[in-house]
Amino acid sequence: MAKFSFSSLWLLVLVLLVVSTVPNQVLGQKRCRIILNPKGCNLPDCQKQCYLSYNGNGQCTSGGSFGTYICSCFYNCGKGQITKT
């Protein structure tokens, strides 16, 4: 019985150790979105501009009407920054 308890305790300590090493910033990080080009979207250009300007992920998203796309940049918001969606 003591062996089982020691093993269980060891496993619990190991799990808590792993969980505590996850940075708090990653857990509470917010994502922001900004429109880089409202008139159209070329995916490679959108991705490059977003990465260079915001270290984010550029994506072509729906522009609202059928068949139109805009360049949207999704990136990690800084502290105190308002989420733009």
UniProtKB/TrEMBL annotation:
Statement: the UniProt record of this protein carries the keyword Disulfide bond: yes
Pfam families for this protein: SLR1-BP
Keyword Disulfide bond: yes
Signal peptide: 1-28
Domain of life: Eukaryota
GO BP: any one term: defense response to fungus
Family from the record: Belongs to the DEFL family.
Alphabetized PANTHER family for the sequence: DEFENSIN-LIKE PROTEIN 127-RELATED (PTHR33830:SF3), DEFENSIN-LIKE PROTEIN 184-RELATED (PTHR33830)
Record's protein name: OLC1v1012489C1
Organism: Oldenlandia corymbosa var. corymbosa
